[in-house]
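Running this now, will post back.
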Amino acid sequence: MFSLLNVSSTIDGGDLTARATIRNAALRLFADHGHDAVTVREIATQAGVSPALVLHHFGSKDGLRTEVDAFAAQAFGAIFEALPTEELAEMLAGGASTARAIPRAARS
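Update: finished.
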Protein backbone atom coordinates (compact mmCIF):
# COMPACT_ATOMS: atom_id res chain seq x y z
CA MET A 1 0.00 0.00 0.00
CA PHE A 2 2.21 2.89 1.22
CA SER A 3 5.96 3.06 0.86
CA LEU A 4 7.79 2.75 4.16
CA LEU A 5 10.35 5.48 4.61
CA ASN A 6 12.73 6.11 7.46
CA VAL A 7 12.12 9.70 8.56
CA SER A 8 15.66 10.17 9.85
CA SER A 9 17.31 9.06 6.63
CA THR A 10 14.84 11.11 4.60
CA ILE A 11 15.73 14.35 6.36
CA ASP A 12 19.04 14.45 8.14
CA GLY A 13 21.16 11.92 6.25
CA GLY A 14 22.17 10.16 9.47
CA ASP A 15 23.09 13.31 11.41
CA LEU A 16 24.84 12.08 14.57
CA THR A 17 25.57 15.44 16.19
CA ALA A 18 24.59 15.96 19.82
CA ARG A 19 22.00 18.50 18.68
CA ALA A 20 20.34 15.97 16.35
CA THR A 21 20.54 13.22 18.97
CA ILE A 22 18.78 15.46 21.49
CA ARG A 23 16.15 16.51 18.95
CA ASN A 24 15.45 12.88 17.98
CA ALA A 25 15.18 11.81 21.64
CA ALA A 26 12.74 14.66 22.28
CA LEU A 27 10.71 13.74 19.22
CA ARG A 28 10.31 10.15 20.46
CA LEU A 29 9.46 11.21 24.01
CA PHE A 30 7.03 13.94 22.92
CA ALA A 31 5.31 11.44 20.61
CA ASP A 32 5.07 8.80 23.34
CA HIS A 33 4.12 10.98 26.31
CA GLY A 34 3.24 14.49 25.09
CA HIS A 35 5.34 17.63 25.41
CA ASP A 36 3.98 18.66 28.79
CA ALA A 37 4.69 15.29 30.43
CA VAL A 38 8.37 15.16 29.42
CA THR A 39 11.16 16.92 31.33
CA VAL A 40 14.46 18.26 30.03
CA ARG A 41 16.17 15.75 32.33
CA GLU A 42 14.28 12.85 30.68
CA ILE A 43 15.22 14.11 27.23
CA ALA A 44 18.86 14.42 28.27
CA THR A 45 18.88 10.91 29.73
CA GLN A 46 17.32 9.46 26.56
CA ALA A 47 19.90 11.30 24.43
CA GLY A 48 22.83 10.36 26.68
CA VAL A 49 23.77 13.97 27.41
CA SER A 50 23.48 16.40 30.32
CA PRO A 51 20.42 18.62 30.82
CA ALA A 52 22.80 21.59 30.51
CA LEU A 53 23.72 20.50 26.97
CA VAL A 54 20.03 20.35 26.02
CA LEU A 55 19.60 23.93 27.23
CA HIS A 56 22.88 25.01 25.58
CA HIS A 57 21.64 23.85 22.17
CA PHE A 58 17.97 24.86 22.41
CA GLY A 59 17.71 27.51 25.13
CA SER A 60 14.64 25.92 26.74
CA LYS A 61 12.25 23.03 26.40
CA ASP A 62 10.02 25.28 24.30
CA GLY A 63 12.96 26.04 22.02
CA LEU A 64 13.50 22.32 21.61
CA ARG A 65 9.81 21.80 20.90
CA THR A 66 9.97 24.42 18.15
CA GLU A 67 12.88 22.58 16.55
CA VAL A 68 11.15 19.19 16.90
CA ASP A 69 8.01 20.61 15.27
CA ALA A 70 10.03 22.07 12.38
CA PHE A 71 11.90 18.78 11.92
CA ALA A 72 8.63 16.80 11.87
CA ALA A 73 7.09 19.18 9.33
CA GLN A 74 10.16 18.88 7.13
CA ALA A 75 10.09 15.08 7.47
CA PHE A 76 6.45 14.86 6.44
CA GLY A 77 7.12 17.17 3.50
CA ALA A 78 9.98 14.95 2.32
CA ILE A 79 7.86 11.82 2.69
CA PHE A 80 5.01 13.37 0.70
CA GLU A 81 7.44 14.42 -2.03
CA ALA A 82 8.89 10.90 -2.20
CA LEU A 83 5.53 9.17 -2.56
CA PRO A 84 4.23 8.39 -6.03
CA THR A 85 1.25 10.62 -6.84
CA GLU A 86 -1.28 7.78 -6.68
CA GLU A 87 -0.07 6.65 -3.24
CA LEU A 88 -0.20 10.22 -1.93
CA ALA A 89 -3.75 10.66 -3.27
CA GLU A 90 -4.79 7.38 -1.63
CA MET A 91 -3.23 8.39 1.68
CA LEU A 92 -4.89 11.82 1.65
CA ALA A 93 -8.26 10.31 0.77
CA GLY A 94 -7.89 7.86 3.66
CA GLY A 95 -7.10 10.71 6.03
CA ALA A 96 -10.17 12.64 4.90
CA SER A 97 -12.36 9.56 5.42
CA THR A 98 -10.96 9.09 8.90
CA ALA A 99 -11.54 12.74 9.77
CA ARG A 100 -15.16 12.51 8.63
CA ALA A 101 -15.67 9.41 10.79
CA ILE A 102 -14.56 11.20 13.97
CA PRO A 103 -17.47 13.00 15.67
CA ARG A 104 -17.11 16.79 15.49
CA ALA A 105 -17.13 17.13 19.29
CA ALA A 106 -14.10 14.83 19.55
CA ARG A 107 -12.13 17.01 17.10
CA SER A 108 -12.64 20.22 19.08
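The chain has one domain: 7-83. More later if anyone needs it.
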